[in-house]
């Protein structure tokens, strides 16, 4: 039979972008109330599409003391009690999505070539169901074929051991990975000899980690959930909790009952921040919902640094700062006082887009509050000046002494359910020497001291060197900025490996050889040779607790993430000369991994005992616990930056790329964005009606978007204009469709995070 031999360029023709939608979206009025009955119905209907009975059974186990941790987000649960159904619409969707009855099995992969699959949408790909068997894509093939686990591990070990340099291996991590699997993952990378451990954090809260480490000596927030009920004022900046952290709305709603005021700062009036009905409280479901924010500030995209400088100006001018706290616990106040006094009101209002009257009125409320919590997420972290912006937010908190005091503090709200834990247990391309020394003492691994690559640097490394890229979860192709650059990087690899639960676009854009290794999800029973195991995770407030799945695995051929790391390590051990690690012993009983974590990492004493207690335990947090700041000066630092913002020139727009209500990062559940009143479309540009008019465009018109960076243009075709209440010259699109417009080199200072919320674009009518 004639056999087609493909040249490598044929594989390169596989389209790395989400295919275009042909029909315009439908529009209704944005919703004024979040959750309530529509939320419950939406989560049920998603379960119906998937596996109703199993999903409902699963939901009753989510976030209970002996259940599994919700894979939806990193928002914590109450320490002392957990209501019967402590879940939300989008957590329910995440669980139902994992529990689907559908299977992307070997027959599926032999029927569909990667070329054909690339013509299908992200939503379609995800709907094929759970991966069931390890699959391999060989250089001359357009189809994945089944491979045994042993052969897959041998292939990885072969390619890794044949690299000319250990630093041509890249070990990526997405934030659902448990502490145990993540610790083992970094152990494997460092035992092999590299710190190349980029992770989703690099695209997410890296700016928070960098800024807070410099300002307060720890890269995490300083509040507990109980602080919300003690706060007088809660400021929520650059965050859409109604969609992305729905359980946070219950906390805000409770805080309001206890007397707190809430200010929301966002270019968009996000529905959850307006009114909220608790999806599990029958009386709430009937009523008209609780008001969440008392004040909404429609700041310009990237205007927050200037806005916070304005607030500081008001606090300083009214002399209502906490002199005692500043004297005892901070450094750099005099310089800050000077720069705040020098900052011009015109600059503040121009950059922020907020009037002086509004800033003064809110500044007075802020001055008076005795306990303020500030929360933020991606609207703050994904800009060029994100680190400086976060330090300005901290400056304001320091003025009021709002750290280490009940009801006050700093709260970067994490995304992926264990992204914070992964970092704590060593997923870090820039490990500190204290950690490396401790790792060496306890495991004998002589870890390299050189920093490894982050996500952006990983793309550059893969473009330059024929590397091996192994991904513990996630969807690097679609999550990263500059899709075409990321695609060319992945294509240049010798081998790409995706350890995944569901099909995604990173399975289609691959290295010369590629593997898909299917793993257990959070909801599933993890049985080793010794017993059923549980894993542990850390939430956004530093609580480490257990998580144990209760469903039968989607396929008998799945392996746990821990078993997969072990399989790779054992195959590699035969080929390379390294110190002995007892991988078998670690992976057969996760208590052994936890014991090793407690010897290597501070704060995990008695890990195995404490984590078996209901609710788990808090990791130490020196600023919160004892006003101890592990900074250069030993005090919390005021940073004095000149204010700035990204501004679009005439005829240009500043674009932010955001999530719809029907997606989990790159996993697209559906084409609706219920709260914003959008149905049946994702390729849309939210635009101010006056901008539409002034630019001679029309509602629902099809347009092309071009981004401009250092003289280079990138164009994405066929988007529909949707009129929306958004500041002038600001536009919004959904990620991941718009990622091809974000230049690889457009990154945040110091944190190197892609500027996903600050992209300069022009918008033109589509030619046809
Ligand atoms: N259902 C669901 N839950 C999720 C996720 C998901 O995709 N789906 N993703 C998870 C992950 S990994 C993360 S990191 C979080 C993300 O949670 P969010 O940060 O809430 O996610 P985004 O959609 O990126 O929303 C950014 C918000 O910031 C606003 N914004 C954008 N630019 C600016 C700005 O310059 N200033 C201000 N003040 N606001 C701005 C936008 O209008 C939007 O409301 O959610 C987690 N939870
Ligand atoms: N333009 C733009 N780009 C962005 C952002 C943005 O706001 N705008 N946000 C950024 C942010 S905040 C983040 S966190 C990144 C997200 O980047 P990633 O974490 O890389 O992407 P996800 O979409 O969360 O990954 C989804 C895939 O993970 C796999 N998966 C799901 N559960 C499991 C599991 O339990 N184990 C394993 N091994 N695999 C699993 C599934 O196969 C699924 O297809 O994207 C970033 N990219
Ligand atoms: Mo994230």
Describe this structure in words.
- By secondary structure, the chain is of the alpha/beta class.
- The chain has three domains: 8-30 and 648-765, Barwin-like endoglucanases (Beta Barrel), CATH 2.40.40; 113-200 and 419-614, 3-Layer(aba) Sandwich (Rossmann fold); 207-413 and 632-637, Dimethylsulfoxide Reductase, domain 2.
- The chain is built from 32 helices and 33 strands.
- The chain has a six-stranded mixed beta sheet, with helices on both faces.
- Helix 2 (36-49) runs parallel beside helix 4 (89-98).
- The model has no long low-confidence stretch (mean pLDDT 93).
- The protein binds ligand MGD (2 copies) and molybdenum atom.
- One ligand MGD binds next to helix 11, helix 20, strand 25 and strand 26.
- The site of one ligand MGD has 32 residues, from helix 11, helix 20, strand 25 and strand 26.
Give short descriptive properties of this protein.
Dimethylsulfoxide Reductase, domain 2, 6-stranded mixed barrel, 32 helices, 768 residues, Barwin-like endoglucanases, binds ligand MGD, binds molybdenum atom
Range of strand content: 15-25%
What count of helical segments does DSSP give?
A: 32
Distance between the termini: 43 Å
Apparent shape:
globular
Structural classification = alpha/beta
- Topology-level CATH name of the largest domain: Rossmann fold
Number of strands: 33
Give the averaged pLDDT, no decimals: 93
What share of residues is helical?
A: 25-40%
Structural domain tally: 3
CATH architecture of the largest domain: 3-Layer(aba) Sandwich
Q: What is the class of the largest domain in the CATH system?
A: Alpha Beta
Radius of gyration: 25 Å
Bound molecules: ligand MGD, molybdenum atom
